[in-house]
Structures are given as C-alpha cells and as structure tokens.
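Hi team,

As requested, here is the filled-out complex form for the 1,3-dihydroxyacetonephosphate run. I kept the field names the same as last time so the parser does not choke. Let me know if anything looks off before we queue the next batch.

— J.
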Amino acid sequence: MRRKLAAGNWKMNGTGAALAEITGLADMYPDPSVDILICPPATLLHRAAGAAQGSSVGIGGQDCHAASSGAHTGDLSADMLVDAGASAVILGHSERREDHDEGNEDVRAKARTAMDAGLTAIICVGESLAQREAANTLDIIGGQLSGSIPDQSTGQNLVVAYEPIWAIGTGKVPTLEQIGEVHDFIRARLERRFGEGVGRSVRLLYGGSVKPGNAADIFAVSNVDGALVGGASLKAQDFAGIIDALQGA
Ligand code: 13P
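And here is what came back:
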C-alpha cells in the first residue's frame, strides 16, 4: 500500500553536466514500479525539472526557509522550489542541523511551509555515534519526530528518513536489526500520534551509505520503504543498482 521511494540527495555536488544523469535515469526507467526522486543543488533545480519533465523522475529541493517570502538573503522559499519544478524537499538533514544549527522547531516550521506550498517534506532524523553508544538512540529519534513533524502531516505530504549520522558518507551501516528497530519505532510513533491510517501510510526511508551492494538486504527490513541516498545517487548507473533492488523488494 505504500509505494516505495528511491530518493537521491546530491548535496553540494553537480553542475550542468550532471543533468545527463537525470536524463539517463529517465531513459532507464520509463515505467518503474517505485517512485524515483533526485534532489539536486538549488542552482540545478529548474534545469533538472526540465530534464525530468514527462518522465518517471521527480525533482526535490534540499532545504527551504520557514517564511514564505521576505528579507532572507541567500534563502529559498517553498513556493520558489515549487516554481522551479520541485515536488518534494528534504528538511532537517543532519548536515543542516549541524552546519546551520537547525533545531526541531526550525524543521517543523519549514515543514509546515513546505506542506502548505504542496511539497512533500522528507524529514530526516538520526542519532550521532555518541548517542547510539550511550543507548539513547530511540529517545533522540522520538524527540526529533515529535519536535520536527507538523500536525498537518499525511501519507502524501510526509516522508520520514532515518539517517544515523555516523553512517552518512562513512561506509558504515547499522546492522539490519538496528535499522529494523528504529523503523518499527518510527512507525509505532507515527501510528500513535496520527492514528493507524495515516501512521501506516507514511513512507519511511533509510539513509546512510546505501550502495547497490547492500540495498537489497536493507530493503528487506520491516518498515523500510526505500532509501535516501547520497554518494551513490550521483551517477545514474550506481543509483540504478539501488532502484533495481527496491523494485525487486
Ligand atoms: P551517503 O549515501 O553518501 O552516505 O549519504 C546519505 C545521506 O546523507 C543522504 O541524505
């Protein structure tokens, strides 16, 4: 009942030449059984949306401001992302939380604006290594969920991505049991807060060193509905290995 989602987060990577990866994906997957989303840097959004137009590949932003417009030099509003052709936006990525001091309240305010603009908010949560080693993982995730996710969330406008900070870009991946424990916990929290109908319809992605070689195992874990992929989403060929695994899951 939940359509699976393979989402690529290009972070601060890619100039015009990278658009060929998007057309490559579009050519490879004319009619996929899963959703495919690429979140390029903001400078490429408009051209990426053009390259993906009419294809199975969706385009998303990597952040937006909580306000709908105004004196915020360098920032982008949710409406601007929509105008550029985005259908989704990543919010509360740990790199934003760390580099830009974003707290749960900030993420929640951004998510509200994004949802009001018609975007799907991909809200990221995840613990640091120190928090995991102190056995605080579920407490941290629980606080991030209740603090970052707005009340207006539904299965259409919300996706939650579990990204343990220590697994991002490191090649380290939690055990399948650890991934399953957190995803089951997130599902239970969503059902408790939003009721079973909405709680069960929100897609939960795993992110952190997902590669073609480990994707199938991760996608077999309960309540994993896809992945949020960094490095391995930059090349269509690599990302295809992950999309294939998701289609086969
Ligand atoms: P990597 O896949 O490069 O570990 O990045 C994960 C991530 O942060 C996606 O948002």
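Two things worth flagging: The chain has one domain: 5-247. Residues 3 and 182 are 20 Å apart (CA to CA).

Thanks,
J.
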